[in-house]
């Protein structure tokens, strides 16, 4: 017997094999089906997907053999990976000086015939083989060899797909950690900035009320600028706090929300103006959802519908319905509308498409990004439909009780 030599790039080969994290993993049907198909096509009682570790060959899938690994020094596959030919074939191991006294030949499983196709990864480095074995001499036809090579390609496709999926999962985990750290940073930074900022606002108001007459017109403008800039910064900080906390709403934290009470609270918050009408339309008396989340979403959407409305009389209609266990909300206004080019931008954080609202103030570009984050965190989705001059309708979904997935109308 002649034991197989180590591959000429063994260190690189082993590193590549380890990168797949496939060794000693449980049996998988896709691989088992491929070895079964290999035996059927080639007419052999045994077929195996082998991966060659440092001192052993491990079987990811096998047909017709009970063991799941053997010593590498006795392996036919150890020889196969060192050959450049597409298929390594031994027609009668009993007559081959490399194998005639090999325990795999002399004892169970008493291998006589072997044909193996190396499983090649990056840069052509072999990880192992897809091989078929028989206990008697055999000659494969060209079509059988071609089929075996095709099946080996499918094995590598499965291995590569598994590796890419694992890498994607790791990247997602890193991204989730980074997002949490960023949210925590934004929350802490915004919270720590609020106290000194409130002091600046208080002092500038005090200066304006008690000392503005002492500083002249230029001083008055400077104090006014400090006040307005501080208020703008405060809105931005509060928006960042809301945004950082918006991912904390749990879709499972549900309570009964009476719609008449919800409507009343929104009207009391926004409808005190004589020129603002907020109506609610629904066949439902109540819904079962995360109350705080629903209120935050509606406050943002109704607030925007009012702030950016250009009509003398503001009209906001809320429609709530249930469709196959999913609550669908529509917030419709009679404002200026949103151009088609801007409809995707408005949900991105810090994107501001209007220069100023009806009160002369510029938005922060955080409110609708917060809405999107809250809605998607609850398993729903949000979208807008609008034509310039015809108002806008924001639609979003929230999962109801015992609901698996949302669906937009």
From TrEMBL:
Single GO MF annotation: phosphorelay sensor kinase activity
Lineage, uppermost ranks: Bacteria, Pseudomonadati, Bacteroidota, Flavobacteriia, Flavobacteriales
Stored Gene3D superfamilies: 1.10.287.130, 3.30.450.40, Histidine kinase-like ATPase, C-terminal domain
Leading EC class: transferase
Annotated EC: 2.7.13.3
Domain Histidine kinase: 188-402
Coiled coil segments of this chain: 151-188
Organism: Pseudozobellia thermophila
Annotated InterPro entries: GAF, GAF-like_dom_sf, HATPase_C_sf, HATPase_dom, His_kinase_dom, HisK_dim/P_dom, HisK_dim/P_sf, Sensor_HK_Regulatory
Name listed for the protein in its UniProt record: histidine kinase
SUPFAM superfamilies: ATPase domain of HSP90 chaperone/DNA topoisomerase II/histidine kinase, GAF domain-like, Homodimeric domain of signal transducing histidine kinase
Catalysis: reaction(s): ATP + protein L-histidine = ADP + protein N-phospho-L-histidine
Record-linked Pfam families: GAF, HATPase_c, HisKA
UniProt keyword terms in alphabetical order: Coiled coil, Kinase, Phosphoprotein, Transferase, Two-component regulatory system
